[in-house]
Amino acid sequence: MKYISSKAVYLLASILSISFLLSFVLNSISGSRWKSREFFHSDSPEFEDEYFLPLMAAFRSAVNLSSPPTPRLSFRSGKVPRFLVWGEPFMNAFWSAQVGHVADGVCPLPCTFTFNVSEMSSVDAVVVHMRGIPSRELLLKKLSPRDPTQPWILSTFEAPPRANSIHHTDYRTLDGIFNRTMLYRRDADVVVPHGFIVRRDEAKLLPKSWRVPPLQHPGNFHARDMVVAFISNCNAQSGRLEYIRELQKHIPIDIYGACGEWKCGHSMYVEHRYDPTKESCFINAGERYLFYLAFENSLCTDYVTEKLYNLMYYPMVPVVLGAANYSAAMPPNSYIDARQYTPRELATKLKVLAKNRQEYQRYLAWRQYYQPSTIGGQPSLCHLCVRLHDPEFYKHKVIEDFYEWFVVKSEPADGRGLCI
């Protein structure tokens, strides 16, 4: 029996690794759309969710290569990469929920994690939660000594105005600390969207809990009420409540939560691990209302949250208010952008649609071809696992001007935002 030399094995592994990375890149660039139009009616709108694209590309690659090799030949902790999560105070329930998809093994490439700082020397990367940074000095002290070959990743799921709401650390003091970023923005090193929309034929590539088929409304169209909103932060800088108060002068709006007269259910934050398809408040809203308001608390670049995605499972038309590029996140004719109208004009438009079933249904037609996210308030960290397998992720990089990158670049280019 002939044995293959160790050099040959190493060469073969390297070739396979390069093949996987090339496949990943091609999927991300030229293969971002599957050649799958035969699955859809010719009237289906052409659309791909740009916020979810990096992770969707990884799921495609995982299917194309049934047993994808690991691009890096070895990691500090073994066969798969491992990361540490740090913040002070450390929110254990919050992070236990955030890493749920990683722990459940549903990501296209595997990785592991730890919350134990004593294991810092054995992890491949360190995730620092923006909300838990007490100061530059304490951050560096708590995580010392620092290994320059170990990337530090700044992570936040909130926009700049609320990202450090516990300590209120001056972002200008964080220059030269972080190597990579992990947040909702499309220019982040690790993109963590709060939800997604994918074509029906590709939905089967995703974990089952992420893609419960959307409901079709069985009830009487003309018996449904007009508008619902779920809002508990009454001090949002986006001006959403002010807009809603003006809108209420022209049409009825039922507001649930701390900012309204209606109460229903319980708080739904990440740590509660809620399922939007099973929450009674959402089920009731889906049966009762024609429209729901997905008004964000901050007007920052790419900032679109579960405010939008929680209710997309239900047959209602979302009315959005934010500074995200909604055309990059949602199919054509699937939403109404409140910032394109005065409150009076928006009220007029909603009244017209509420009286014309055929026109209203045009805003729901996309549901025949696309699958909305059902992950709830738990953004997936799977893209982090994917990036930790990529040698490019470990190349030297430092965010020298943190305020410029995190705050200034979060200001919408059209000047209509409010993110500082």
Write the layout of secondary structure elements.
Layout: H1 6-29, H2 53-64, E1 82-86, H3 92-98, H4 100-103, E2 112-114, E3 125-129, H5 136-142, E4 152-155, H6 160-163, E5 180-183, E6 190-191, E7 197-199, H7 200-203, E8 225-230, H8 240-247, E9 253-256, H9 280-288, E10 289-295, H10 306-309, E11 317-321, H11 326-329, E12 336-337, H12 343-355, H13 357-362, E13 370-372, H14 382-388, H15 402-406
Parallel strand pairs: 1-2, 1-3, 3-4, 4-5, 5-6, 8-9, 8-10, 10-11, 11-12
Antiparallel strand pairs: 7-13
Helix pairs in contact: 1-2, 8-12
Structure, described:
- The protein is α/β, with parallel strands linked by helices.
- The protein has 15 helices and 13 strands.
Number of strands: 13
Major sheet: 6 strands, parallel
Radius of gyration: 23 Å
Helix content, binned percent: 25-40%
**Helix/strand class:** alpha/beta
Distance between the termini: 69 Å
Biggest sheet strand order reads: 2-1-3-4-5-6
Count every helix, treating DSSP H or I runs of 4 or more residues as helices.
Answer: 15
Nearest-integer average pLDDT:
86
Q: Could you tell me the strand content as a percent range?
A: 5-15%
Topology order in helix (H) and strand (E) letters: HHEHHEEHEHEEEHEHEHEHEHEHHEHH
What are the low-pLDDT stretches, counting only 5+ consecutive residues below 50? Answer: 1-42
Dominant shape: globular
Give a brief description:
With 420 residues, the chain is an alpha/beta fold. The protein contains 15 helices and 13 strands. It is globular.
Provide tags for this entry.
15 helices; 13% strand; 420 residues; 13 strands; alpha/beta; five-stranded parallel sheet; six-stranded parallel sheet
